Amino acid sequence: MDTIRQGAAAELWQSLVREACTRCGQALDEAQESYLVFVLLRHQRDGHLLVRTQALEWLEAQLRVGSARSDALRDVGDRCLLIAGLFPALAQRRRVSVEYFIDLGRGAYQGVADSGRSAYADLFAQLASTYHQLVHTLRAVRGEPVVSLGLHRHGMLH
């Protein structure tokens, strides 16, 4: 039964992500879309998502080695992605900008890429370089109008 529920949830998230891409006029490649759906599935029941201090978790990840370090950095990147995309008001409550979470998350993904194995490193390098696009997609999942996303720097979406 859990497998059926997980499959239905994956289909729902995938549908929401695809609709969001259509609304904001962008396309994610298969790897980006799959990873974003994976993140949404993995954290959909994370009751501690909004109470964690991501900078401290990033620092703790730096103290680890090998795959434990990569996994911890991935988790920080994932959570920052969800906060920046789905819960941007949290940044205001913590008196930081959404860019703070974007920069921290993108840096965490880049850390995974820098210490990872080939295919894994390539995926996280791509995710780091398109982090703004992933946040943009999650904002569209929230139903925010594309023009109010505030993710443009110098007239270009990063």
Question: How would you characterize this protein structure?
Answer:
This protein has 158 residues and is mainly α. The protein has one domain. 72% of the residues lie in helices and 3% in strands. It has eight helices and two strands. The chain has helices at 2-24, 30-43, 54-62, 66-86, 89-93, 98-115, 118-129, 131-141; strands at 152-153, 156-157. The chain has a two-stranded antiparallel sheet with strand order 1-2. Helix 3 (54-62) runs antiparallel to helix 4, helix 4 runs antiparallel to helix 6 (98-115) and helix 6 (98-115) packs antiparallel against helix 7. The longest helix has 23 residues, at 2-24. It is globular, with a radius of gyration of 15 Å. The model is unreliable at 148-158 (pLDDT under 50).
- Uncertain runs: 148-158
- Per DSSP E runs of 2 or more residues, the count of β-strands stands at 2
Q: Report on the biggest sheet.
A: 2 strands, antiparallel
Number of domains: 1
SSE-based structural type: mainly alpha
Series of secondary-structure elements, N-terminal to C-terminal: HHHHHHHHEE
Helix content: over 70%
% residues in beta strands:
under 5%
Shape: globular
Determine the number of helices (DSSP H or I, runs of at least 4 residues). Answer: 8
Distance between the termini: 41 Å
Output the radius of gyration.
15 Å
Major beta sheet, strand line-up: 1-2
Q: Give the rounded overall mean pLDDT.
A: 84
